Amino acid sequence: MNSTETMASAGQFFLQSLRSQTSDSHKKLDSLPASAVLMTAELTSEAYTRYLQLMYPVIKWAEEQAYSHLPQNIELPGQFKRHKLILKDLDFLRSKPIQTHFTGFETTSVAESFGVAYVIEGSSLGGVYIAKNVKSVLGYDENGGLSFLIGNGNTTGSNWKSFLNSLTGFAVENDSQGEIIKTATRTFEAIYHHLSGFAE
């Protein structure tokens, strides 16, 4: 096995570890009423608006603070503008962000910023599927109400793969797998506590 194959193998092992070790925190977050209702036929405009309002400070924190140590040439599925898309959707819904404080944390390294980005940018994949239900139940679409969830639409998957290549390359080359996994788990938990704190 040459060095390229070794790196690729190490990268795949890291991704498997990242997914498995954050799985419980991820599932716990998805099970919260504020999140789970998005995929049901019982979804209301009020519940959807509330979700966007709660997620706004989370995404804004990530894009304006937590991502500060990412490489300058990094390509993200959300292109650092997803919090602005939430504002666009809230405006369409004739609403606005509410005064909710998200207790995030300071990132102090590239690895920690990558850990946060794995969670936040990964949510864009789920957003594409959630958008289909929101469109079916509430009638919103790319022209109004679904900007945040749709994001880059058909290119989301390829953008995500590009991001994962950057993530795994950095992790393996810098032996920072553990730090990334720890930060990703911490991010899932922080968002969980934020959303559960505002459960209706």
What are the SSEs and their pairings?
Layout: H1 3-30, H2 33-36, H3 45-64, H4 82-92, H5 110-138, H6 147-150, H7 156-174, H8 177-196
Structure description:
This protein has 200 residues and is mainly α. The protein has a single domain (3-196), classed as Heme oxygenase-like (Heme Oxygenase, Chain A), CATH 1.20.910. It contains eight helices and no strands. α3 (45-64) runs antiparallel to α5 (110-138). The N and C termini lie far apart (55 Å). The mean pLDDT is 92. It comes from Flavobacterium silvaticum. GO terms for molecular function: heme oxygenase (decyclizing) activity. This is Biliverdin-producing heme oxygenase.
Keywords:
mainly alpha, Heme Oxygenase, Chain A, 0% strand
CATH superfamily: Heme oxygenase-like
Shape: globular
Calculate Rg over CA atoms.
17 Å
Number of strands: 0
| CATH 2nd-level architecture | Up-down Bundle
Helix fraction? 55-70%
Q: H/E element string?
A: HHHHHHHH
- The number of helices is 8
Distance from first to last alpha carbon: 55 Å
Mean pLDDT: 92
Strand content: under 5%
Which stretches are low in confidence, meaning pLDDT under 50 for 5 or more residues running? none
Largest sheet: none
Reading off the top of the CATH hierarchy, the class is best stated as Mainly Alpha
Based on secondary structure, the structural category is mainly alpha
Q: Kindly give the count of domains.
A: 1
Write the CATH fold name.
Heme Oxygenase, Chain A
